[in-house]
Structure to design on (893 residues):
């Protein structure tokens, strides 16, 4: 006899776990299945940014983040606001355009000069031309946050099974009825697929084509620096933050398109790109250039052809990919997925432009057309 | 089909190595020197690098060895130290004479190869650095003779100057002539500990005691008849003042406590194979208790295509002659000659021995004792999977522990590391990774062989941003540089999608919408 859950979520990343937590808060019985451990992939390997003003979920995300520690019951290290500083005129102009764009949307951003920037960011140097101070957004600790979702879900009676890859999805009359795993078969009333790069492979047998390509991205982190007023500082072509411990964690630059296997990435190697990241961090923070880099790492993320999420419901199946930008939005993403599962539609914002159907006319060779091909195939 | 180029992707952007060598040997200990000389004799061009003498600041962070604040000011004068290194190791002069490009004070901090998950490199390469700059070096044959590192275990008072590792002691005494202590207590009684005691005595350093937690001497006592070992003794704590250790308190088998004056405590229980470069280069890592824990599946030999491992890094322990013989055998294979590498004959269970010591030290130290010194993680917080002190500990978090994590699956060292921060400090977990691993195994009732372990990442030595920075970066790297993938439609505000504003944003900002 198979165990039954109201909702099964495939993927214990930040999107899947937030979705599961929202559903459990709603009283649903929820099971999360993952091929590995909680947050082992990109959900715990990212820059921790929470300032994605482009998203329709952003207002809800901004409403929720300040409450998340209390709602989850575990610390996320969420910090408000960001500063983006420039070391050349092109960046300066670019950031100022973004400030105007955000302010016009109702997300106020101050334009700051070099002296103001140096006062806010003591490790910036004489080369800093100024930048913008986002009076919104922020950042949090991805590793702590993803575990907080898992624990909060369990506190509500939800279940997480690690090292349990889904190997088949069963349907009856077009509706998902069960999933099969090496640990047995689980039946469900609804299924949420939030398995990152593995989504396409999981859904292809159902005749559902989800256009995704996996890419590898790298970051570096230094030993701690004295804490700055705002940890959310980036610029110079980098994203990242100063952690509450003081470490400077930054990424950016070229990605590598890679092939993925159904069981997930076999390895997440880094490259000498870390030296280019170090150069850019040292340029941005000349007064921290003496700090030791102590780790680098890579994460594998999926991207859709337009880089925008797919949040969509097909019968009792919900597809959730944030296209490589999922961490910061996760409080709101879970809410949207909960709404899609329970109500069939998102209650707090319009997400119609994030439907899978927008790719219905996509040419089969879209990866070739975009140049999104793994190097081995070149 | 002609492939369209994604200008934001890494394709073609990683430059060829700054230097190209026929053979590179990393590590100028007995195995590395032997390997380099064998290659030179076979007519190969050889670069031999060694990270010693290490910079004083790095030594102060206990990298690469656990120096424990017992180095003299001699570390401030690297030029003089290089002379000392050459004087104390005759094979270095021989290497110079053989025409080998010998570079001391040069660190190999990265090894990159195309493998699963990346095909971005024009060829495999090492990341090298001196104190000022870093560069890359390609090779036809790479020999990793990276030796071993110290194995640290915590006890009450271990987090003060004067508590150090046996390999750091050997390095400071025998290679640098820069040891600042005068009276040592040695923990352990295997060959490593007995040789440590013998070395100390030969240099006029007083050996106040050799302490063994097991009931018998573990090493070749017959070879060191003059070294008395306090067997069956437990170390209760190290006490000291502003300059560090001044005494240790031990308990005899009958429970009697005694105080032993000393300025240094040397942990000589075991050493750990230094597999960092092999692992970041893509080698699998297994746990082999007889070889000293985490090691490459292939010990001595070709661990990755064109990459050969020799010496203590393979898990080999024992005499210098053994290491040299092994290096000769491996190099015969690497050079395409006939060579047979003898399998290791090391029946001693090194992890069980470490575990016995750790259990005894845990029993005598409060659970508030730091396990990770860099991040100040206590044993209680490690096993409780609690966050660092700057974070709140709400009620539900306090109810979490390794025990509750184990309900989700086997212990995962990376997960525990992220939550507690143990091992995430500037020493890169050198002082805590073996004990964290064993403590997690003990708490999960797993044998030492199944202890979960954290992996190594580049840079395998802490490296300043200004040194790691690629100052001669290729223009190709900056072309198309984007914060994140460069998908121009990704950052268009949702409300503007499908409006004239979308086109304006894309024209103004190009692919760098989120710079």
């Amino acid at each position: 006899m198979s165990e039954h859950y109201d909702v099964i979520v495939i993927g214990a990343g930040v999107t899947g776990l937030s979705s599961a937590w929202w559903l459990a808060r709603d009283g649903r019985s929820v099971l999360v299945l993952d091929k590995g451990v909680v947050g082992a992939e990109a959900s715990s390997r990212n820059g921790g940014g929470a300032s994605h003003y482009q998203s329709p979920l952003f207002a809800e995300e901004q409403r929720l983040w300040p409450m998340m520690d209390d709602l989850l019951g575990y610390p996320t290290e969420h910090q408000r606001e960001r500063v983006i500083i420039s070391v050349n005129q092109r960046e300066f102009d670019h950031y100022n355009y973004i400030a105007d764009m955000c302010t016009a949307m109702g997300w106020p951003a101050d334009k700051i000069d070099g002296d103001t920037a140096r006062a806010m960011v003591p490790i910036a140097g004489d080369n800093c031309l100024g930048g913008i101070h986002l009076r919104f957004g922020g950042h949090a600790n991805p590793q702590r946050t993803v575990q907080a979702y898992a624990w909060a879900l369990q506190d509500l009676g939800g279940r997480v099974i690690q090292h349990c890859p889904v190997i088949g999805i069963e349907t009856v009359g077009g509706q998902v009825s069960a999933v099969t795993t090496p640990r047995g078969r689980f039946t469900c009333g609804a299924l949420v697929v939030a398995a990152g790069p593995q989504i396409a492979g999981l859904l292809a047998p159902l005749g559902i084509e989800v256009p995704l390509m996996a890419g590898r991205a790298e970051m570096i982190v230094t030993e701690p620096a004295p804490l700055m007023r705002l940890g959310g500082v980036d610029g110079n072509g980098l994203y990242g933050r100063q952690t509450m411990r003081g470490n400077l964690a930054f990424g950016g630059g070229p990605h590598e398109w890679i092939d993925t296997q159904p069981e997930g990435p076999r390895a997440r190697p880094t490259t000498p790109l870390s030296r280019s990241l170090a150069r850019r961090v040292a340029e941005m923070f000349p007064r921290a250039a003496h700090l030791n880099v102590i780790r680098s790492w890579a994460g594998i993320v999926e991207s859709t052809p337009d880089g925008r999420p797919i949040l969509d419901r097909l019968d009792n199946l919900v597809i959730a990919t944030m296209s490589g930008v999922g961490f910061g939005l996760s409080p709101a993403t879970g809410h949207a997925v909960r709404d899609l599962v329970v109500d069939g539609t998102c209650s707090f914002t319009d997400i119609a432009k994030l439907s899978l159907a927008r790719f219905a006319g996509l040419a089969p060779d879209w990866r070739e057309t975009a140049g999104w091909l793994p190097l081995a195939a070149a | 089909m002609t492939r369209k180029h994604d200008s934001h992707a890494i394709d073609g952007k990683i430059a060829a190595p700054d230097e190209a060598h026929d053979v590179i040997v990393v590590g100028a200990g007995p195995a590395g020197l032997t390997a380099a000389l064998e290659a030179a004799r076979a007519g190969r061009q050889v670069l031999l690098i060694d990270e010693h003498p290490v910079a004083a600041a790095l030594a102060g962070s206990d990298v690469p060895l656990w120096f424990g604040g017992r180095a003299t000011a001699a570390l401030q004068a690297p030029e003089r130290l290089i002379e000392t290194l050459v004087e104390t190791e005759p094979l270095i002069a021989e290497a110079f004479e053989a025409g080998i490009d010998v570079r001391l004070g040069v660190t190999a901090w990265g090894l990159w190869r195309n493998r699963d998950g990346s095909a971005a490199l024009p060829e495999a390469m090492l990341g090298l650095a001196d104190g000022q700059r870093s560069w890359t070096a390609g090779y036809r044959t790479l020999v990793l003779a990276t030796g071993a590192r110290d194995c640290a275990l915590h006890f009450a008072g271990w987090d003060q100057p004067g508590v150090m590792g046996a390999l750091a002691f050997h390095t400071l005494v025998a290679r640098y002539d820069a040891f600042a202590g005068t009276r040592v207590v040695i923990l352990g009684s295997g060959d490593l500990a007995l040789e440590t005691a013998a070395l100390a005595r030969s240099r006029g350093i007083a050996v106040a005691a050799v302490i063994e937690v097991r009931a018998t001497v573990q090493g070749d006592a017959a070879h060191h008849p003059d070294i008395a070992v306090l067997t069956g003794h437990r170390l209760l704590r190290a006490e000291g003042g502003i300059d560090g250790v001044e005494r240790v308190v031990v308990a005899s088998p009958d429970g009697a406590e005694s105080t032993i004056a000393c300025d240094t405590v040397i942990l000589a229980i075991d050493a750990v194979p230094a597999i960092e470069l092999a692992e970041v280069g893509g080698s699998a890592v297994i746990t082999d208790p007889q070889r000293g824990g985490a090691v490459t599946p292939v010990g001595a030999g070709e661990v990755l295509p064109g990459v050969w491992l020799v010496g203590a890094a393979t898990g080999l322990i024992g005499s210098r002659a053994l290491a040299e013989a092994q290096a000769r055998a491996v190099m015969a294979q690497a050079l395409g000659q006939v060579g047979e590498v003898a399998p290791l004959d090391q029946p001693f269970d090194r992890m069980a021995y470490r575990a016995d010591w750790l259990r005894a030290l845990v029993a005598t130290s409060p659970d508030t004792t730091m396990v990770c010194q860099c991040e100040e993680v206590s044993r209680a917080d490690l096993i409780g999977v609690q966050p660092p002190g700057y974070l709140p500990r709400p009620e539900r978090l306090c109810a979490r522990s390794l025990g509750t994590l184990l309900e989700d699956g086997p212990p995962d060292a990376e997960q525990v590391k992220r939550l507690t921060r143990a091992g995430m400090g500037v020493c890169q977990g050198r002082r805590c990774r073996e004990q964290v691993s064993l403590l997690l195994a003990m708490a999960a009732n797993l044998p030492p062989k199944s202890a979960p372990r954290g992996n190594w990442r580049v840079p395998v030595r802490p490296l300043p941003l200004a040194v790691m920075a690629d100052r001669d970066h290729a223009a190709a790297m900056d072309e198309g540089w984007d914060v994140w993938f460069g998908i121009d439609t990704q950052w268009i505000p949702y409300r503007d999608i499908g409006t004239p504003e979308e086109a304006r944003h894309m024209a103004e900002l190009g692919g760098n919408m989120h710079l």
Remarks:
- The radius of gyration of chain B is 25 Å.
